[in-house]
Write a structure and sequence with these properties.
Largest sheet: 3 strands, antiparallel
Helix content: 10-25%
Strand order of the largest sheet: 1-8-7
Structural class: alpha+beta
Oligomer: single chain
Order of helices and strands: HEEEEEEEEEEE
Number of strands: 11
Length: 147
């Protein structure tokens, strides 16, 4: 083995020895427990909400629409609110309620960085772009306060 190759191998080993402990110290974000449930009762109709844009805490915050969450043995309303994404690469996935033979399939709301893909009949993988939910701006009526 030449001196040059030996030097490159030693440098690679040294770099690996330095990098491994550094990687071990990188904190991993907690993975949420995503439990899909089959419940016997349908969720109530969603409530109408008014979004007040002037209350947005910061530019990177997103509006999470209100939804019903299955807690214990009943549906509980979680009101809409502004929330900062835990990472820049994630998007909010609203809950899904799907009618099935046994009742209702409930897929809870969560943050996701996954990209949807499907395989067509020719075996080619195609990525699906998931559109972010657009929030419609509603004008808030100003009322005069009468004394």
């Amino acid at each position: 083995m030449s001196t040059r190759m030996a030097f490159k191998a030693a440098a690679a080993c040294l770099a690996g020895a330095i990098a491994l402990p550094a990687l071990a110290q990188v904190p991993m974000p907690p993975v949420p427990e995503l439990q899909i449930r089959i419940v016997g009762t349908a969720p109530p109709p969603l409530r109408r909400e008014v979004i007040v844009y002037r209350e947005r805490p910061a530019r990177d915050y997103v509006w999470v629409k209100g939804f019903y969450d299955w807690q214990g043995d009943d549906w509980v309303w979680v009101p809409g609110h502004w929330v900062a994404p835990p990472e820049r690469s994630v998007r909010w996935v609203s809950p899904r309620y799907v009618r099935v033979d046994e009742g209702w399939r409930y897929e809870p709301a969560h943050w996701s960085n996954q990209t949807l893909a499907f395989v067509d009949e020719k075996g080619k993988v195609k990525k699906v772009k998931v559109k972010k939910e657009k929030v419609k701006k509603e004008k808030v009526k100003k009322e005069k306060i009468k004394d």
